[in-house]
């Protein structure tokens, strides 16, 4: 999009600043650390289920174990990575970054859906009650909010019908609810971990059973991954710098809303 003639020099200046903006030196190290934590969380979840819960299978009593693994992969690790897309891919086209952000959320949702189906199917086969615990209530809330957040985000940012002004107004809410849902996912995972330990270990939990110790380590890793992701997201100087095209769009919109059309210059 062409800049207004009176603002052409300003646009060129912004373009040069956007293209020359260097990546923060510490950012790649923090991102790498967050990925190391995330992969360790997934591996530790698998180790816990393999060592103390018998492993994973769909058509057996081990079907329940599909639930925690899928939820950790989907609503913790992949969701966290989806939030970091705009910090990692700083100079790629905005459209490409949006698509990657949306796809990661789709993968996270599908994997979480498998985990949700697994636990409901397991309960049905064994005659257990559904949705009575705080963990299950929080889990359903997170899942519904996650789905709604994705649908609204797709409608505003990927669907071509949304206007630039509407996207600008909704963007702060989208960012806020994205971080909130991620925090709720972490809290729900910690509640589920504690619930699983109490169901199996009971009073033995207080005797430092090896499973309890490993699960406590897993809980600390979950919290650490969440802290790392949120720290990266909240660093203002690590935000993705606006590209030249985005700055031109913003300037044209501002000019139009102030009643001075770019075409009249």
SSE order and pairing:
Elements: H1 8-20, H2 27-52, H3 66-88, H4 94-126, H5 134-158, H6 164-201, H7 210-234, H8 244-257
Structure description:
The chain has helices at residues 8-20, 27-52, 66-88, 94-126, 134-158, 164-201, 210-234, 244-257. It is an all-alpha fold and 265 residues long. The chain has one domain (25-236): Four Helix Bundle (Hemerythrin (Met), subunit A), CATH 1.20.120. Helix 3 (66-88) runs antiparallel to helix 6 (164-201), helix 3 (66-88) runs parallel beside helix 7 and helix 5 (134-158) packs antiparallel against helix 6 (164-201). It starts with 7 loop residues before the first helix and ends in an 8-residue tail after the last helix.
What does the radius of gyration come to?
23 Å
The end-to-end span amounts to 15 Å
Low-confidence stretches: 5-18, 252-265
| Shape category | globular
Report the mean per-residue pLDDT as an integer: 87
Strand-residue fraction?
under 5%
Remind me, CATH topology? Four Helix Bundle (Hemerythrin (Met), subunit A)
The number of domains:
1
CATH class: Mainly Alpha
Number of strands: 0
Largest sheet: none
Query: What proportion of the residues is helical, as a percent range?
Result: over 70%
């Amino acid at each position: 999009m062409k800049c207004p003639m009176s603002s052409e020099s300003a646009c060129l200046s912004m373009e040069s600043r956007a293209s020359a903006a260097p990546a923060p030196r510490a950012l790649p190290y923090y991102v790498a650390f967050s990925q190391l934590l995330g992969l360790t969380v997934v591996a530790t979840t698998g180790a816990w289920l393999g060592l103390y819960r018998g492993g994973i299978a769909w058509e057996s009593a081990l079907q329940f174990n599909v639930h925690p693994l899928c939820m950790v992969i989907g609503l913790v690790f992949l969701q966290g990575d989806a939030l970091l897309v705009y910090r990692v891919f700083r100079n790629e086209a905005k459209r490409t970054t949006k698509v990657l952000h949306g796809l990661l959320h789709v993968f996270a949702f599908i994997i979480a859906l498998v985990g949700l189906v697994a636990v409901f199917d397991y309960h049905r086969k064994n005659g257990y009650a559904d949705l009575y615990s705080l963990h299950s209530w929080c889990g359903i809330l997170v899942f519904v909010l996650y789905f709604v957040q994705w649908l609204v985000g797709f409608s505003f940012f990927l669907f071509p019908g949304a206007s630039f002004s509407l996207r600008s107004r909704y963007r702060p809410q989208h960012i806020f609810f994205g971080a909130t849902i991620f925090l709720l996912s972490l809290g729900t995972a910690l509640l589920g971990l504690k619930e699983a330990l109490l169901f199996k270990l009971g009073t033995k939990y207080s005797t430092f059973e090896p499973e309890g110790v490993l699960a406590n380590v897993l809980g600390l890793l979950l919290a650490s991954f969440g802290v790392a992701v949120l720290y990266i997201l909240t660093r203002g100087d690590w935000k993705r710098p606006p590209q030249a095209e985005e700055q031109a769009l913003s300037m044209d919109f501002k000019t139009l809303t102030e009643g001075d059309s770019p075409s009249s210059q």
